[in-house]
Amino acid sequence: MIASNDFVSAAGFAFEKRRGVPLGHYELSVIEEAGLADADCERLADEIWASLDEERPEQYRITAYWALGKQCRDADRKKLILALAHELPKNMHAVYQIMVALTNHGEEVFSSSRGGSTSYDEADLNRADATAYLARTK
User: Fold this and answer.
1) Which of 9, 12, 58, 133 has the smallest number of Cβ neighbours within 10 A?
2) CA-closest candidate to residue 31, choices 59, 9, 51
3) 80/103 Cα distance (integer angstroms)
4) Which positions ≥6 away from 94 have C-beta within 8 Å?
5) Which pLDDT band, with edges at 50, 70 and 90, does 1 fall under?
6) Taken in order 1, 42, 39, 18, is the CA torsion positive or negative?
7) CA angle at residue 33 from 32 to 34, to 5 degrees?
8) pLDDT tens figures, 16-71
């Protein structure tokens, strides 16, 4: 069972490492401290998804979606879309992290009219973009 935000953050860095993203000393040390240097990233991502089935605090969910967005597995795209619909009425910061994760998967979630500028604190714009994206994916 995944227990902490710090562990999930380390998993996000481990996912990036596995994908060949250059990491700095800080990220590598976080991976090492969490015991994830040789982690099975597929299994780890599955465990994070399973942990989201439990009742988790808002910050945990935000961190989990952030980390899962670093994995970029094709199998996660549908799960992310379902999570976006689930979180939309509840947690706009989580919605933003899911939108970024979907963007990492090559999805066009954010409106092109925003000129590439997005932020988690633009709740109204993010809500509109998420709603439009979900309508397109039905």
Assistant:
1) 58
2) 9
3) 11
4) 58, 61, 62, 65, 83, 87
5) low
6) negative
7) 90
8) 999 999 999 999 999 999 999 999 999 999 999 999 976 788 999 999 999 999 98
CA-CA distance, 36 to 14, in Å (whole number)? Answer: 7
pLDDT in tens, 84-135: 999 999 999 999 999 999 999 999 999 999 888 899 999 999 999 999 999 9
Q: What is the residue-wise DSSP string for 77-104? A: HHHHHHHHHHHTTT-HHHHHHHHHHHHH
What is the SS3 assignment for 84?
A: helix
Q: What are phi and psi of 123, to 5 degrees?
A: -60, -45
Q: Which two tokens stand for residue 58?
A: 């808002």
How far does CA 77 lie from the centroid of its chain? 11
d(CA 131, CA 136): 9
Structure tokens at 55: 């009742």
Encoding tokens for residue 129? 């973009």
